[in-house]
Amino acid sequence: MTLQGKKSDGSDMHSRTANTAGISRDHAKVINYGRIYGAGLRFIQRLLRQFNPKLSEEETQQRATQLFATTKGQKGWYLNNMGQNLALELNYPSSGEALDRKEINKLLRQARYNNIEASFYDVVDGPAVWVGGSESYMFNCLEAIARSEEPRTPVLGARVTRALEAKYVDDQYMTSRVNWVVQSSAVDYLHIMLVSMKWLFQEYNIRGRFCISIHDEVRYLVATEDSHRAALALQITNLLTRSLFAQKLGFKDLPQSVAFFSAVDIDYVLRKEPHLDCVTPSNPEGLNKGYGIPPGEALDMQKILEITSGILEKNGEVAR
Q1: Using a CB cutoff of 8 Å and minimum separation of 24, what contacts does 224-228 make?
Q2: What's the pLDDT score for residue 320?
Q3: At the N or C end, where does the chain have fewer CB atoms within 10 A?
Q4: What's the pTM value of the predicted model, to 2 decimals?
Q5: Per-residue confidence (pLDDT) for residue 10, from 0 to 100
Q6: How far apart are alpha carbons 262 and 312 in whole angstroms?
Q7: Residue 208's closest CA among 190, 226, 233?
């Protein structure tokens, strides 16, 4: 879903979540991001009921549980030395991976059957981790960073406020601490992009400046004749930033599906999508008829390459 899913054929993460939960794709995005930012099962159930009031209490709980099990996974624990020795003694299959509560209870029942007394917390070690879900590894990494002695973002190494370090709060405020890892890494992404764009604008004499960032968007004011070169610079910036993130996290390759933005909007006004005419009660004639502002354009990487030939230099100019 993450690497090959497409919105167009309904195979991306948001579309699959929408189908599983019986809600719209936009509502599914709220649930997916809520989960990544640390929302629990109860919060997801409340959202599901809000988005699909026809669901019964039982259906809501069932769908939310299924959604959590396939994405975030279930809680699991690693066996400590006593647990590993017990599994070895009883020939219980254990690969060294974390086991969910059901599997650990099965081991304990087998132990009692062999007259060996042991409780759940006698055989497990450390805090719970997530197992069995498509996002379990991601959540384990996020929580590991949040629980570390000096939590830092993995790319630029920004530290969390000392008031939320584990030595002061132990396991409290985990939702906020995990959320900090995600949001601050997004800030790292923005900061790297801004530096890269400033460098490319100066290096290739692209007349433009940073205007505003809105959540996951960056907007630049650019001279009309330089707009397509600026769009190419933005795609190259995303490629460089993604590559740095991948390298910092130990990945040696970058999937093409995340290397470039799906599209770069070039427009004369600030609007959600460049094709929207923005007809409203206070603007009944829209932008085109009312103000003579034509639709903008949304260019994917292929179209940008066709227009610019993949060259950042202005005609007849040499990069500094």
Answers
A1: 226/314, 227/266, 228/266, 228/299, 228/304, 228/307, 228/308
A2: 54
A3: C
A4: 0.82
A5: 82
A6: 19
A7: 226
Mean pLDDT of the chain: 91
- Give domain limits for the chain: 13-70, 74-182, 186-308
As a whole number of angstroms, the distance between CA 146 and CA 170 comes to 10
DSSP 152: B
Asked if 296 and 278 count as a contact pair (C-beta separation under 8 A), the reply is: no
Q: How many CB atoms lie within 10 A of CB 32?
A: 20
Give the tens place of pLDDT for each residue, 107-159. Answer: 999 999 999 999 999 999 888 999 998 889 999 999 999 999 999 999 999 99
Burial (CB count within 10 angstroms: exposed 0-12, middle 13-18, buried 19+), residue 230: buried
Task: Say how far apart CA 280 and CA 297 lie, in whole Å.
Answer: 21
Buried b (16+ CB within 10 A) or exposed e, 151-183: bebbbeebebeeebbbeeeeeeebeebbbbbbe
Coil/strand/helix, residue 298: strand
Give residue 172's identity as a one-letter amino acid code: Q
HEC-encoded secondary structure of 176-227: HHHHHHHHHHHHHHHHHHHHHHHHHHHHCCCCEEEEEEECCEEEEEECHHHH
Is 80 exceeded by the pLDDT of residue 50?
yes
Give the model's confidence band at 316: pLDDT under 50 very low, under 70 low, under 90 confident, else very high.
Answer: low
Q: Is it the case that residue 6 has pLDDT exceeding 90?
A: no
pLDDT in tens, 274-313: 999 999 999 999 999 999 999 999 999 999 999 999 999 9
Interhelix angle 227-248/174-203, rounded to 10 degrees, is 130
